[in-house]
Amino acid sequence: MITFFNEDISFNLKYKVKTKSWLKKVAELEGFRMGNLNYIFCSDNYLHQINVEYLDHDTLTDIITFDNSEEEETIEGDIFVSVERVEDNAKDLNVRFDDEILRVLAHGLLHLCGYDDHTDEEEAEMRVIESKYIQLFRTDFAK
Predict the structure, then answer these.
(1) 107 is in an annotated binding site
(2) Is there a smaller number of Cβ atoms within 10 Å at the N or the C end of the chain?
(3) Which domains, from first to last, does the chain contain?
């Protein structure tokens, strides 16, 4: 089950039902079944505090993913998303906010599927996979 929450902001994700179906399909295509996955939309300040407290990183970020799975092939987790960071990233990258939020949602899920982005090579691979799944959303779910 995929659930969307707001923590310290008001944010309404467009196409919630279609987005949930798309995320389930992404997990399936990656060889996983969907357990409980929570996306928590929040502010920069809220996510920064999590970054400092849990990861000892004193930086702003767009997403932090916590893997709560107990079974290897089941997705279970909490994904915190700074809507402010996503908005800024969309402007900086000159992309639509809707595309950038999809990229970030997929990014968190891909982390739970075992992908990392610590090196330039891993990050490049992650971007290719994110783009593939954004295209899947556009062609199969955005209708």
Answers:
(1) yes
(2) C
(3) 2-141 (3.40.390.30)
